[in-house]
Specification:
Blueprint: H1 3-26, E1 28-33, H2 39-50, E2 66-70, E3 82-85, H3 88-103, H4 110-120, H5 129-142, H6 151-158, E4 165-168, H7 169-174, H8 176-186, H9 193-202, H10 205-209, H11 236-252
Parallel strand pairs: 1-2, 1-3, 3-4
Helix pairs in contact: 2-8, 2-9, 3-5, 5-11, 6-11, 8-9
């Protein structure tokens, strides 16, 4: 592990400790999520709306008015928390392609390479994502990477905690200006409409990447930026495994009304949604 990454991890741990003890008095706003839920995007917009810094890659602990980002576990003393949810099926697909991108980077950590080789051999066909996902889902459930728990346990551990402002990636994609404004007001702050619109526009996928949501670039950290893309990658085996391991969380978090969601896959191929239409942004 390189020195800069070690410093960032130490900084994050110390920032969490500071935020837990004095975050409210210092004016700190933690945005917490399971990886690949859109947390960095939300942090940038929220910081602009509140007109405070977002120290994304700080190698020093944060102890000032700022938006901070993490995958921290719940603590009752944390204040001003914004917790971001995202459909775990989309998360796992996004994380799969994230690991594939890191695998192709010669400077990436050895841990990603070891995991890929253990799952798919030393000459993996990572483009075969539909076939590869079942083993990847099981791996991320049993050996979570980037967070202290798997998607199910992490999100359920934060579910319906008092004083937490909850939002969803899907709601931000549906009407980002309205949802960001709601978050700001729920935090007890105000942002002029023009300022909220500026914050959203300044960090739109179009502005940051030159691509519209749905236009894929697997070499980019922002790969596709859509809701419901899991239907293009999940086969029947993936649906069954995810249902067995985390299906209850989909229901508890409101992404499905019952566990019957997986039965549609018996007659509907990857690439279609529940009603037979193409997945959309």
């Amino acid at each position: 592990m390189n020195t800069q990454l070690q410093l960032r991890r130490l900084s994050n741990r110390l920032t969490r400790s500071i935020c837990t003890r004095w975050g409210e008095s210092l004016g700190m706003f933690p945005v917490l999520e399971y990886p690949k839920c859109g947390g960095t995007w939300l942090c940038k917009m929220l910081a602009d709306a509140l007109r405070i810094p977002f120290a994304q890659y700080s190698c020093m602990p944060i102890a000032m008015p700022a938006v901070v980002h993490g995958h921290w576990t719940y603590h009752q003393r944390l204040r001003n928390v914004v917790f971001l949810n995202r459909d775990g099926r989309d998360v796992i697909v996004s994380y799969y392609f994230h690991c594939c991108r890191r695998y192709g980077n010669q400077t990436t950590s050895a841990g990603v390479r070891k995991m890929i080789h253990r799952l798919y051999g030393t000459n993996p066909d990572l483009d075969a994502h539909c076939e590869n996902l079942p083993r990847f889902i099981e791996e991320m459930y049993r050996n979570p990477s980037g967070a202290p728990m798997n998607w199910r346990d992490y999100n359920l551990s934060w579910h319906e905690k008092p004083g937490v402002v909850y939002t969803r990636y899907e709601d931000l994609r549906a009407d980002c200006v309205a949802e960001l404004d709601r978050i700001v007001r729920a935090l007890g702050r105000e942002s002029a409409p023009w300022n909220t619109e500026r914050a959203v526009d300044g960090h739109s996928m179009q502005r940051l990447t030159g691509r519209a949501p749905g236009q894929e670039d697997r070499d980019s950290f922002i790969r596709k930026g859509v809701v419901g893309d899991w239907v293009n990658s999940f086969n029947e085996e993936s649906m069954q495994i995810f249902a067995d391991l985390a299906g209850d969380a989909l229901v508890s978090l409101g992404y499905e009304s019952s566990s019957d969601w997986r039965t549609w896959g018996a007659t509907t191929p990857p690439g279609s949604s529940h009603d037979g239409t193409k997945a959309s942004a």
